[in-house]
Design brief:
Layout (H helix, E strand, L loop, with lengths): L2 H8 L1 H15 L9 H14 L9 H8 L3 H15 L2 H13 L3 E4 L2 E5 L3 H13 L5 E5 L2 E5 H9 L4 H14 L6 H17 L4 H16 L2 H17 L5
Antiparallel strand pairs: 1-2, 2-4, 3-4
């Protein structure tokens, strides 16, 4: 990391402001009083202020720029997010994640890639409150959810009026005419079958095409995309 080049690009005023903020925090309440973790977070904030790293860096960004392990990078991100993100902001992060997820199909379950460790814990906690267990033993950045858990996670993002609109649209697309959870479960099951036939970036693109309209409760978009999904399944001889 070329600090001289970074501070030159940031400019004297931005660099001064970042150093002033760092020193004021480091010297409070007294020199050397802060624990090592807090000092490291102050330095990370300083680096972000001068443009050396992003405000919300990825694990790889910290690993490559700071020459630290992935475990250390994840811990820094976790501690930083814990101190700066509210529960409401994390809920919005869940919606953003679901809108364009990186997802794999693992048997009857979905594996959702969540690089942000605090967001991963936030999702696990919300699902636990709803009575669903998740599995992260395969990888710290992969959270495996059952089909029911995936349904619950999406359902939690919708208001009652949005659920009604989504139900109408999915039934119109060819899903079974049951409860909202039943229809959504049947639709996601079909989506899972579609994912199983894809690989790599195609998976993310395919999932985003279907989950985005669900989160928006866009009746026309839901009907159009899921109708094609159910139709293609029927042509292959699978049950609708």
């Amino acid at each position: 990391m070329d600090i001289a080049a970074i501070t030159a690009k940031a400019g004297s005023q931005k660099t001064k402001d970042a150093v002033d903020t760092f020193l004021a925090a480091y010297l409070h309440p007294a020199f050397g009083a802060l624990p090592k973790t807090e000092v490291e977070l102050l330095i990370l904030r300083l680096l972000a202020q001068i443009g050396a790293v992003s405000d919300r860096p990825s694990v790889y960004e910290l690993v490559s720029n700071l020459k630290i392990t992935r475990t250390k990078a994840r811990r820094l991100i976790y501690d930083q997010e814990l101190r700066t993100r509210t529960a409401q902001e994390l809920d919005e992060d869940v919606r953003i994640l679901l809108r364009a997820p990186i997802m794999q199909k693992r048997g009857e379950s979905f594996a959702l890639e969540i690089e942000n460790p605090l967001l991963s814990d936030h999702i696990r906690a919300k699902l636990k409150e709803m009575g669903h267990v998740t599995d992260g033993s395969f990888s710290p950045s992969l959270v495996t959810l059952t089909l029911d858990a995936m349904v619950a996670l999406i359902e939690a993002q919708l208001s009652e009026s949005q659920k009604s609109a989504t139900l109408d649209a999915l039934v119109k697309a060819g899903a079974p005419d049951k409860t909202f959870k039943g229809v959504l479960k049947a639709s996601l099951k079909k989506l899972g079958e579609r994912i199983a036939d894809e690989s790599g970036h195609a998976v993310a693109e395919e999932v985003a095409k279907y989950v985005g309209p669900l989160l928006d409760a866009s009746k026309s978009a839901i009907t159009a995309t899921f109708k094609a999904l159910f139709t293609s399944s029927a042509k292959r001889g699978g049950p609708v």
